[in-house]
Design brief:
Chain lengths: 167, 369
């Protein structure tokens, strides 16, 4: 049996892992198993390994195989080799192709966990600003000018704060 | 400071845990983070990696959680240093293979550790003894929150933290626990347990050894997915499963003692006999036999012996830890001799296992009611 990574040498390491209802099998030669970290069960996940093999991983949409990340020069061919991306911008460059891949890998496709505090503050301020603007419109429509003036002040302050955290 | 001098002695490390903790050896939470715009380490040229290391290292060293810390660029560490760090679970084998442009920082308690330019720019982890998954998450969450004030992390509101491998994107979290499961292995119940845990999108694998073998009956349970669920949800999911595995292990032990006490005593007695009398022993055999000794301690068959002894021996008989105690460079055969010498010496002071401490089960249920 040939090594599923290099397709050259005889496979000597056979791995099986069951994730969900799927059974993944992969056969590797000595050199590739070392390189992929398969000799170290503490550190490697077969899922990573399989995705690293680029078995059917297309991250460029059909017809745009020469897509290249403008920030780091990463291409579809690079992904096939390593199963890793080139930089954080690659997620934007290859967004279309990655979407399907992420769906098969994870429980969801949207992040629901922690986010950087600075971003959270910005978001909170932006939300607040939105509602203040709405109140302002309403106050103007109702010709409550005293309240509108107050709201304008608040909005001015909020904008200054927003500038502060985003700098 | 040299690594040797910084690392706590093995015996101290092993005393950190709760002595009542029988099954969960340690809990770990790892977060993957990257700096916005910089090429990921695997795609970066060496000068870029050196530059990003220079950018990240001071930020990590300045963390309040790293007040007393060890920091080094990987190319300044010897092969033996790296192996020591692997045996302490502070770095991965992949990271040990790195040199210029990669680095490591960890604190004095060896509870918080940051690998720089492993697969991601930052792989930070909290490791705590025993079942403390929540506490480990709390600790690394703090480290991350401090660090995000100093570094601009790559983050997308939709996809979360952006990682080199799409399998880690989102939370970038890997929650894991190291479990000692000799009861389930002896009772041949380990495979169904592994399969049912796998169904919950969690992975179970032997921590030592290749393929399906699990040296020392030590297994690692960890999450496989990182996107679509919050960190807290993942932590709680693992916690729940761990509680179930612990219960299964306790039940397996009780059942074994009830139905096949002689099998259990035989395994433990033989382990004691070999470890206490061998003159040459491999690391592999040592791990497997120490596991049985540990089981004996859990069952109370070694009264008066501190159970951390087994954990300490487990660590100090690993190749680099063994080498650390000797000036001369050892080959495998020499290590096997020295390992056996050490084991005979340490177990010489441990009395024979006493199976009479284990009460035979009541003849039938009626007798106890
Ligand atoms: Zn190969
Ligand atoms: Zn890129």
């Amino acid at each position: 049996m040939l090594c599923s990574a290099c397709q050259k040498k005889e496979a000597t390491v056979f791995l099986t892992e069951i994730v969900g209802d799927k059974t993944h099998k992969v056969d590797l030669c000595e050199a590739c198993s070392k390189e992929k970290g398969a000799s170290d069960p503490g550190a490697f996940a077969l899922a990573d390994l399989l995705h690293g093999l680029g078995a059917s991983q297309e991250i460029s949409p059909p017809g745009s195989e020469d897509l290249k990340c403008p920030n780091c020069g990463f291409t579809q061919a690079d992904f096939k080799k390593s199963g890793r991306l080139g930089c954080s911008e690659c997620y934007t460059t290859f967004a279309e192709g990655l979407e399907g891949l992420l769906k098969t890998m994870h429980r969801g496709t949207r992040h629901t966990g922690k986010m950087p505090q600075a971003l959270m503050q910005t978001r909170a301020l932006a939300d607040k600003l939105k509602s203040l603007n709405k109140s302002l419109e309403k106050a103007i429509a109702e010709e409550d000018f005293e309240r509108a003036a107050k709201l304008r002040d608040e909005i001015r302050q909020m904008n200054a704060k927003l500038k502060e955290v985003t700098v | 400071m040299r690594l040797n001098e910084f690392l706590s002695p093995a015996v101290e490390m092993c005393r950190r845990g709760d002595p009542r903790e029988r099954i969960v050896l340690s809990s770990r939470v790892r977060l993957a983070r990257n700096v916005k715009g910089l090429p990921f380490p695997g795609h970066a040229k060496k000068p870029d990696r050196v530059k990003s290391l220079e950018h990240i290292l001071p930020a990590v060293e300045g963390l309040p959680q790293m007040e007393r810390h060890f920091a080094a660029a990987m190319d300044t560490l010897t092969a033996m240093d790296k192996q020591l760090l692997v045996e302490r679970h502070l770095i991965s084998r992949e990271h040990a293979a790195k040199s210029a442009g990669s680095g490591i920082v960890f604190n004095g308690e060896e509870s918080a550790c940051v690998m720089i330019n492993e697969e991601d720019h930052l792989r930070m982890q909290a490791i705590l003894p025993g079942l403390q998954v929540r506490q480990a998450w709390a600790l690394i969450d703090q480290v991350d929150t401090e660090l995000e004030k100093r570094l601009d992390f790559a983050f997308s509101p939709e996809l979360g933290y952006l990682t080199a491998c799409p399998t880690n994107v989102g939370t970038g979290i890997r929650v894991s626990a190291m479990l000692h499961l000799p009861g389930l292995v002896l009772a041949e119940q380990i495979n169904p347990i592994i399969q049912s845990v796998n169904k919950l999108h969690l992975a179970v694998r032997g921590l030592y050894g290749e393929g399906t073998e699990a040296l020392g009956n030590i297994f690692q349970v960890s999450n496989q997915t990182t996107l679509g669920e919050s960190e807290a949800a993942i932590v709680e999911r693992i916690n729940k499963v761990l509680a179930q595995i612990i219960e299964h292990e306790e039940n397996a032990r009780a059942k074994l003692l009830e139905t096949k006490p002689k099998v259990v005593f035989n395994h433990i007695g033989r382990a004691y006999g070999i470890l206490g009398n061998a003159h040459s022993i491999s690391s592999k055999e040592t791990m497997n036999l120490l596991s049985l000794l540990r089981l004996g301690m859990d069952l109370g068959m070694f009264p008066g012996v501190e159970r951390t002894l087994v954990d300490e021996l487990f660590l100090t008989t690993q190749p680099a830890h063994l080498q650390q105690q000797h000036v001369k460079k050892l080959d495998t055969d020499e290590r096997d001799l020295l390992r056996a010498d050490m084991m005979r010496e340490r177990l010489g002071r441990v009395g024979k296992p006493d199976h009479t401490v284990i009460k035979p089960p009541p003849a039938d249920d009626a007798a106890t009611n």
